[in-house]
Amino acid sequence: MTNVTKVTNVTKVTKVWKTKISLFLTFVTFFTFVTSVAFPEAGRTTAQFLARDVGTRALALGGAVTALPGDVESLAYNPAGIGTLERTQINVMYSQGIIRDGFGFVGIGAPVSRPLYLGVGAISYDAGNIELNLSNGVKETRKAQQDFAGIAAAALRPWSFVSLGGSIKSFRSSLAEEYKASGYAADGGIIWKIPRSKTQAGDFYLAASVNNAGPDITYYKVKDPLPTKTSTGVGWRYNRVKQDNLTKVPVGWEIFLLGDYSQTKLDDPVASVGLELTQIHLFESDNIASLRLGYKDFKKYPTSHAGFFWGSQEYGFSYAIVIHKSGLLQHQFALTFKL
């Protein structure tokens, strides 16, 4: 009787492990498909949501934003950008993916007491549902993937032409509601400005950053590395702004050209370029309008990017669209507030 009980227990344990392994393999197959369709840049690292173009402005510019100053979106790609904010800035973003997945970001950054600047933010990702129909008879619907990360950043601007920043990300991730992992990662960066007074041809920016540096995480027995990324960026900004004689309001236009070269662990290097054209106080009103274009040169999956901004010095709405080589589209929206 004892031997029968032992055999029964072994059989139950074997079935449980077969179910777990079957579930894990099913999800891995699904996740491989998701990343290949939704995020062609995804490589052999995990927690890929940390490596996405978080901001709508960043997405529209093809991710060429390492050297972009004055935007709270830099919480996600170069914390030194927090040190270039002139006032408190809040950004709320949502993206609808091509596989009905959802991606969101909220961030706030502000000058505290110069030269100190602080910022906090959060990133969330929901890959939607997955229908399980396993060989052992298990049939159910589960959340395919759910990720969340909190960000705390600080930057110093000891001189007007240089900003240094760093941040810590604490994150958690779950696959198929069964396999969970958590961890932390650190970002660091610098932005150096060469002002117009030195060049007589606009402002030049040089920048570098390291993102997602941290220990490996484990979902199921095997450790996977984070998508640690190193980036260098350049920027050139030129504007022609004059004061209206009647309204005494500055009016004019601005052009911002940006370029990035980045390398994510275990992936091919990526080059990207972005162009932003801005009309300041459009039609002699308080409105500001920007047209944004970008291109990201993945080795196998190049993407074209576009977007716009419409608003004022206090608030605005941004939109971005990504056109993948396959013809699939990705949309992203954001609201920005400056206090």
Which band does the percent of strand residues land in?
Answer: over 45%
Distance between the termini: 76 Å
Strand order of the largest sheet: 1-2-3-6-7-8-9-12-13-14-15-16-17-18
**Helix/strand class:** mainly beta
The SSE order reads: HHEEEEEEEEHEEEEEEEEEE
Apparent shape: globular
Quaternary structure annotation: single chain
Going by CATH, the homologous superfamily would be monomeric porin ompg
Q: Unreliable stretches, pLDDT < 50, 5 or more residues?
A: 1-43
Q: Give the biggest beta sheet.
A: 14 strands, antiparallel, barrel
- Identify the CATH class: Mainly Beta
Which percent bin holds the helix content? 10-25%
> Do you know the CATH topology?
Porin
Written description of the protein model:
The model is unreliable at 1-43 (pLDDT under 50). The N and C termini lie far apart (76 Å). The protein has 339 residues and is mainly beta. It has a single domain (2-338), classed as monomeric porin ompg (Porin, Beta Barrel), CATH 2.40.160. The strands form three sheets. The protein has a 14-stranded antiparallel β-barrel with strand order 1-2-3-6-7-8-9-12-13-14-15-16-17-18. The protein has a two-stranded antiparallel ribbon with strand order 4-5. It is globular. It contains three helices and 18 strands. β17 and β18 form a beta hairpin. It has helices at 2-38, 56-60, 196-199, and strands at 89-96, 102-113, 116-126, 129-133, 139-143, 145-159, 162-175, 179-194, 203-213, 217-220, 222-224, 229-243, 250-264, 270-280, 288-297, 303-311, 315-324, 329-338.
